[in-house]
Write a structure and sequence with these properties.
Layout lengths: L3 H14 L3 E2 L3 H18 L13 H4 L9 H8 L7 E2 L1 H4 L14 H15 L1 H10 L8 E5 L5 E4 L16 E4 L6
Antiparallel strand pairs: 1-2, 3-4, 3-5
Helix pairs in contact: 1-2, 6-7
């Protein structure tokens, strides 16, 4: 059982590291932290509390909290999609929190929904498993040309977690299998 206080401390530490704040509404913040706690207990990783997770780590890498979309959302709107992390002007009440567009690509949302629906019914899951190929993703090795950070995932992150370079600064490492 994960303690809610540990989830809060992790979120506060991450917010402080990147110059952000946590949502100032105590009830709303508690709900978000409980969602993170629940997802971590259910899946084994803290998937974003405001998005549907597939339950498969390799499909949900982009929505591990803090998700890949947090920094671009905060830069553009002042807060992330679920408004867990906020910028100083929002913290000070100068910018209101209103709904913002979902940045997660539709194909990734659909994949999470399809996986969740499959898992909801054992019979449906078995029928699907027998009739079609399992959902697969093509993992690639990406490196940040600015700082050298490397990751193994489907797409490069929107922002490098080390040096904050934009997605465009990432390159794919291709391995020649003919050797």
């Amino acid at each position: 059982m994960i303690a809610l206080e540990n989830v809060r401390q992790r979120a506060e530490s991450d917010a402080k590291t990147y110059g952000y704040y946590l949502n100032t509404d105590p009830d709303f913040l508690k709900d978000l932290l409980e969602g993170l706690k629940h997802n971590e207990e259910r899946y084994g990783y803290p998937s974003c509390p405001c998005r549907i997770a597939s339950g498969k780590f390799e499909f949900d890498r982009d929505i591990l909290c803090p998700c890949d979309y947090r920094d671009p959302d905060i830069k553009e709107y002042g807060y992330c999609y679920c408004a867990l992390y906020i910028r100083k002007d929002v913290f000070e009440g100068k910018t209101p929190i209103v709904p913002i567009p979902e940045r997660r690509p539709l194909d990734k949302q659909a994949r999470a929904n399809a996986t969740t629906v499959e898992a909801s019914s054992e019979e449906s899951y078995e029928r699907t498993r027998m009739q079609e190929e399992p959902l697969q993703i093509k993992m690639k090795i990406w490196y940040c040309r600015q700082c050298g950070y490397m990751c193994f995932r489907e797409d490069p992150p929107y922002i490098c977690p080390i040096c904050k370079a934009k997605r465009e600064r990432f390159s794919e490492i291709r391995i020649d299998s003919r050797i």
